[in-house]
Design brief:
By secondary structure, this protein is an alpha/beta fold. It contains twelve helices and 17 strands. Bound molecules: zinc ion (2 copies).
Length: about 350
């Protein structure tokens, strides 16, 4: 018979779990594996609340294995290192993102693209190589193979830096891969939420002209004054949309609701690139005419490999890029999730795990 979550492994762990599709969180006792030779044990300090956490907690994608402890924007301190661990020392501040394992052998893994390995192990709601369920960062500690642990740069604050581990790499990786970093070029950022606001900051750091494309006119001042965007385009304003036709070199589309691609493709210059990173739960219609007539490209991208995630953290540290966050206590989590569903957050909730998780 299967052991209960708190008896499965030798190390006691405690966090907050969702038990059913209500997505309501409550305290949860479970366990973590013994620290292996390649492993690092981490005391969790902060964990960001990602949109995916909510989708999984409420089983919106249909594959949630309850109880689930989400959280894949983890910053913590190393408390134990295995005998073969070379990269990390006890006491060091580290990060853990969306993945905690992969096959290490396939073509993707060999190219430092663990995120595209067919056997990727996700930080939560997945199964580890020993068959045990993975639990994420809404908890006091975690044990992770050092390959999937990141150095957290000294000058990057834990709170504002945590969301970079998912939101940050989700927009950084496609910008690099699709060549959307040429200084002076014009980047459109569709959607100004957790992903979009980081994309604006990265675009400016790469030297791009950045326009925020949003359905909400209320975000204009915010986009320009606080985030440093060069201009703002409301999709519901036909005059402004018309004036902006064919002016953008690239668009990063972070919108996770079902939406029309045609207006976005029309904003691109010939040879323009539209990269989607939001995950609408239904297929989007792909208009072919603007693609063919303007030799345009539509692409996708999923987080990043470990090497590139480290590069992204170092880039953000160098350019002073952090996410704008609202730090919360663990017992505020259910309220935070309700607010997140209404997009009532600027722009990421981050749980102060270490000082608010009490048994
Ligand atoms: Zn995420
Ligand atoms: Zn692999």
């Amino acid at each position: 018979m299967a052991k209960s979550p708190d008896q499965e492994h030798p190390q006691k762990a405690f966090g907050w779990a969702a038990r059913d599709k209500s997505g309501l969180f409550s305290p949860f006792h479970f366990s973590r594996r013994e620290n292996g030779d390649e492993d690092v044990t981490i005391k969790i300090l902060f964990c960001g609340v990602c949109h995916s956490d909510v989708c999984i907690a409420k089983n919106e994608w249909g594959f949630t294995n309850y109880p689930v402890v989400p959280g894949h924007e983890i910053v913590g301190t190393v408390t134990t290192v295995g005998s073969n661990v070379k990269k990390f020392k006890v006491g060091e501040r580290v990060g853990v993102g969306v993945i905690v394992g992969s096959c290490k052998k396939c073509e993707s893994c060999q190219q430092d693209l663990e995120n595209y390995c067919p056997q990727t192990i996700f930080t939560y709601n997945s199964h580890y190589t020993d068959g045990a369920k993975t639990y994420g960062g809404y908890s006091d500690m975690i044990v992770v193979d050092e390959r999937y642990v990141l150095h957290f740069p000294d000058n990057l604050p834990s709170e504002g830096g945590a969301p970079l581990l998912c939101a940050g790499i989700t927009v950084y990786s496609p910008m690099k891969y699709y060549g959307m970093t040429e200084p002076g070029k014009h980047l459109g950022v569709a959607g100004l939420g957790g992903l979009g606001h980081v994309a604006v900051k990265m675009g400016k750091a790469f030297g791009l002209k950045v326009t925020v494309i949003s359905s909400s006119p209320k975000k204009e001042a915010e986009a320009i004054e606080r985030l440093g965007a060069d201009s703002f385009l409301v999709t519901s304003d036909p005059t402004k949309m018309k004036a902006a036709l064919g002016t953008m070199d690239y668009i990063i589309d972070t919108v996770s609701a079902v939406h029309a691609l045609f207006p976005l493709l029309s904003l691109l210059k010939p040879n323009g690139k539209l990269v989607t990173v939001g995950l609408p739960d239904k297929p989007l219609e792909l208009p072919i005419f603007p693609l063919v007539l303007g030799r345009k490209l539509v692409g996708g991208s999923n987080i990043g490999g470990m090497k590139e995630t480290q590069e992204m953290l170092d880039f953000c540290a160098k350019h002073g890029i952090t996410a704008d966050v609202e730090v919360i206590r663990m017992d505020y989590l259910n309220t935070a999730i309700e607010r997140l569903a209404k997009s009532d957050v600027r722009y990421r909730f981050v749980i102060d795990v270490a000082s608010s998780l009490s048994q």
